[in-house]
Amino acid sequence: MKNWKLAFGLAATLSIASPASAETTIVFGSPAGPDAPEGLAVKAFAEKVGEATDGEVVFETSFSGSVVTWGTSLTGVRDNLVDATFLTPAFHPSELGATFVFIRLVTAPGELNARTAAAAETALLNCPQCQREWDRFNVRPLVVTGSDPFNMICKPEVTTLGAVEGKAIRAAGPFADYVKDMGGTPVSTVPTEVFEGMQRGQVDCAMGGVGWLRQFGLGDVAEYVLDETIGYDHARLPFSINADIWEGLDDDHRQAMIDNLGFLHAEANALNTSYGLDARQEAEAKGVQFVAMSDDLKAASDAHREAVFDAAAAAATEQGVEGAAELVASYRANLDKWNAIMAEIGDDRAAYEQALQREIYSKLN
Questions:
Q1: For the domain that residue 108 is a member of, what is the CATH number?
Q2: Domain enclosing residue 102, as ranges
Q3: What is the spatial distance between Cα 246 and Cα 257, in angstroms, rounded to a whole number?
Q4: How is 137-197 classified by DSSP, letter by letter?
Q5: What share of the chain is helix, strand, coil (3-state, %, to 5)?
Q6: 177 and 261: one domain?
Q7: CA distance 219 to 103
Q8: Could you give phi then psi for residue 273, rounded to 5 degrees?
Q9: Are 37 and 232 a contacting pair, CB within 8 Å?
């Protein structure tokens, strides 16, 4: 990556009141790797924006935390280390309390495309308290996407409520609450240390993305995966831009980005889904078994997930988030709306992108 100070100066100079023929450089820095689903999606988005502007908008990208990390991406975009970045509210529960409400809902029921659309519509269009906290950091999240499914990945076979009892299960945030309700013992092992923990018998299971079977090598140590999705990280913000840069863009350049946000949303979701499926197939080829939940565990799991809405609102209210109950209610209403849309369009990718543009992204300013 070029010297970021020079690159930012170029971006800022060319973005504000520049002729339509001038080149605008967007300096994008991500904590994730270039081949991570969000990295691939942003690069494809950049190509589409470049094509739509006849090459007038170009992206200068850095990945793998070389400029901003998960913990510094929020302040990095505020302080002009980068023009745009990949944010996740999970790393900023205090600074982004209202946005973190969506993280509190990760174990709620719902499939990926409907719930990310509901989160996007709620956060971007129906959450003034989210907007106020973004304003404090001078950042404009433009899109909300999700992860591969989170399942319980285990070394011992754990399929019943009784079998979960007392098991040491790596889990964080809302997933730790889930583990407690199922009778397990959540442990705070970082994902990169789960493999060794399972090898040594210190960790029985991990609540993690199916992609962890590949990403963290769990397919070589785990023997069972509960074949039941417990949730998704449905509040990822893979393209969040400095507000001054956004407002200083030429109108045509800004519109080119808006017009391709539905693509970015759908592409990131699709790539995460594919990553999870590929990781599953690789693990199954190594002998990892995907096993069904017993009826008693399924009943307890479903009950917990339905109760998450009220629990999330209560926890956010206790944290001091203004209008937390109304925010959760708005998300639930939008989830119902998007469940109906997905029932109509099914797996039609083009129709999904069109719906995202029509219902959400065309309404951004």
A1: 3.40.190.170
A2: 4-146+233-277+314-363
A3: 10
A4: TTEEE---B--SPEEEEESS---SHHHHTT-EEE--THHHHHHHHHT-EEE---GGGHHHH
A5: 55, 15, 35
A6: no
A7: 26
A8: -65, -45
A9: no
Structure tokens at 188: 């705070």
What is this structure's pTM? Answer: 0.92
How many angstroms separate the Cα of 225 from the Cα of each of 53, 120, 209? 46, 30, 11
CA 128, chain centre distance (Å): 20
Integer CA distances (angstroms), 242 to 118, 123, 232, 257, in order: 24, 17, 27, 14
What does 259-278 look like in DSSP terms, one character per residue? HTHHHHHHHHHHHHHHHHHH
What is the bridge-based pairing of β-strands 57-62 and 24-29?
A: parallel
pLDDT tens digits, residue range 153-198?
A: 999 999 999 999 999 999 999 999 999 999 999 999 999 999 999 9
The per-residue pLDDT for range 58-70, each reduced to its tens digit, is 999 999 999 999 9
Going by C-alpha positions, the residue among 238, 316, 308 that lies closest to residue 36 is: 238
Asked whether residue 202 is domain-assigned, the answer is yes
The CATH number of whichever domain residue 174 belongs to comes to 3.40.190.10
Q: How far apart are CA 198 and CA 161, in angstroms?
A: 20
**pLDDT per residue over 24-48, tens digit each?**
999 999 999 999 999 999 999 999 9
- Locus of tokens 């999700």: 146
Distances 120 to 113, 125, 186, 361 between C-alpha atoms, Å: 11, 8, 30, 9
Q: Is the domain of 86 the same as that of 209?
A: no
